[in-house]
Amino acid sequence: MESCAINRKYTLTSILISSILCFVMILFYLFSLDKIGLIYVGETQKTVYSLKKNFLANTIDNLISVIDHRREARAKSMEKLVGRTAVAIDLKMGLADAEFNDFLISFFRDNPDYSFMSVILWDMGENGAIYDSQNLAGSTWEGTLNAVVPGLSAYTILTHGERNILLGVSKTYVEELVKAEMADIIRNSRFEDNTYIWVNEILNYEGGPDYAIRRVHPNLPETEGAYLSTDMTDIQGNRPYLTELEGVKKDGELYFEYYFKELNSEKVSLKLTYAKLYKDYNWVIAMGVYQNDIQAYIDQTTEKSHILASRLTLLLVLLFVVILFVSFSLVVLIEKIRYGKSRKMLESEMNQDSLTKAGNRRSGTHDLSRAFKEYQASGRSPGIMIFDFDYFKNINDQYGHSVGDLALIEVVKAISGMIRSSDKIIRWGGDEFVVIFYGLQEKNALAFGERILGMVSSLKIPVEGGEEISLSLSIGFSFFKENDGDFTDVLKRADKALYLSKSKGRNQVHLLL
Asked: Whole-model pTM?
């Protein structure tokens, strides 16, 4: 009996000790679990914040790249416009002085399409301006050139007897066109998690009242044009505009936080914002994400981890660690995937012409560069075609830009149906397009161009009143050559072939090698 009592005592003691040890282990496990959970939440928060910050910065950088490309494209289009205008005036050089004066003045004064162009008709004999469309002329011809030419994006000088003619387009006009285009792009851009891009233009880098003007704001479009002050505060007394101004002045960019109204809501939330200065325009381009969106994602992940942890036992400690690691990796992977999709969507929009769905000039430049490199490696040149619409301006003037847009869309759609999936159709600017035909031989280029002309001639574009209009194109073809320095050389030849088609009556295709 005594032995049984001792054994029972040892058994109870062992059970008690085992229970205490198990209890201590459970407490240690729960304590460790809590600590691990805190570490997990902290690391998850850091990772999500880092990904969000990268997304904001990359989106703004991509937008700035679009601005630079559009400025370059606009400048080149103005160079072409000035060149074409000069050709039209050159055709009248045979007129007598008085007739030429009347023609030139009437050409620009009575044509609203040229109201933006700077035109100075200078009489060298009288040493004075006969016509000055923008009131830019000085007291001498040389002084006028020195004062006016630096402000022109594109210009040319013609001579008729003792008369000099300066034709040009101001840099200010070109930049205002680009600003308007970019404002529309920003307003129409869509992103996940209630994010959007906005633009403030700095007027006074010293700050104070009216230091900046709000140019674009998709969340508060009614406030566009309003003046901003560095003294403005949010609901917590922060001065976000002062913080932003000091940051871009110091480093050109910054991340900062403040409270602001959410998109399509009256709710005010804490916002993480990235802002970068585009110095050429004095634009502060910014994008933000609301903290509650980030925290909701983190909270959801944390809740799931706690539910999972509550079902584990001491025997599953190792498995818990593995699951913790997998869960953490999964969170990072999911966010990277979401970020990758957002970036791919933005890149797709930036590489595609929004109207015709053809490639834009940015993507086209890349495609042409790649095609030229492949030609250098293989010696096989794709066909390079440039085309534009005959009398496209007349269509816009007579029927409106909506009909002109429809004509662009239908022609691109029709040509896309004739080419292979590997070929590229690019909107190079306005109504001018470039097409890359991989595998097209020189001997077949003209015949294929004639097929395109025939197809386009069969299109009927509806206009108001139940009428329909027909279209025609002028086409130029060329191919890469051994002495080409880059793809621009083949474009120049194709462009010359295009204008050969125009000069011979339009609705034609020519090939220059």
From this structure: 0.52
